[in-house]
Structure formats: C-alpha cells, structure tokens
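Consider this record:
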Amino acid sequence: MRPGTLAKSAAAVLVTAAVGGVASRSSDSVWYAKLRKPSFQPPPQAFPIVWPILYADIAAVSASTIDHLQERQRDDDARAYQAALAVNLVLNGMWSWLFFKWRKPGAAAVGAAALTASSVDLTRRAVETRSGRAAPLALYPLWCAFATVLSTRIWWLNR
C-alpha cells in the first residue's frame, strides 16, 4: 500500500476517534453511572484496548483496498469505497454524541445498527477486492453488532 493512502485513511480514522472521544468524555458522568447496564457490559478497560486496534485495522485495510482498486484502474470502485468509508466513519463518530453527549440511548441504538450495517458493507467491499487480506476487517462489524445489542439493551433497561 502507498504511504500517502495510508496517511489519508489513518488521518480520517484519527479524526473520527477524536470527534467520538470529545463526546465520550461524558462517560464518567453521573448520568452514565446511574444507567442500568446489562450483565454483559464489558469492563471500561476493554474500550480503550479494542477501539485503537479496530481503528488501525480500518485504516490499513481501507488503504490497501483503495490502492488495489486504483492500481487496477477501478477508479469508480475506489471512489465508492472511499464514500462508504466516509459514511462509516461519520456513523462511528456520531454514536458517542448520540449516547454520551446528547443522552439519547434509543437513538444511539439505532445509530449503532446503522454503523453495523455500514461496517458489514465496508467489510464486504474490502473482502471482494482483497479477499483474505481484508479478513481482519470482519472484526469491526462483529464489534459493532455487539455494540448494537449492548446499546439496545441499555436503552431498554432505562426507558
């Protein structure tokens, strides 16, 4: 993969992490502490471990996919992948705002479901292009699906 493509995808992912991180500062709030949470809620230490790994994976697989498409003169597919990545990263960053900043667990559950669908689509596009080399990206929609279940359950417990 080209260093320039990796730098661009890494920058996009870093911006997403920063935008989500600004809203997630509220995760230490009294409001969040008082929410009823399901028994399968991971410990708080899991999130700062899982997300950087997933973000690195998204950046690397996306850069590789985009370069592969461009090298084969599939520029329309490369642009479509970039658009799908942009939508995915907006949905990713938006979840923290919906849940932590705006305190809308129901909307956050819907947002998590949209993020899961978008992550499945992004992974499908990458695997179709890069086959096994893109397989690690499959962890991302799996985590997002878990986040959807978790968000939905938190919303349900606190209606």
The chain is about 80% helix and 0% strand. The mean pLDDT is 96. The longest helix spans residues 75-101.
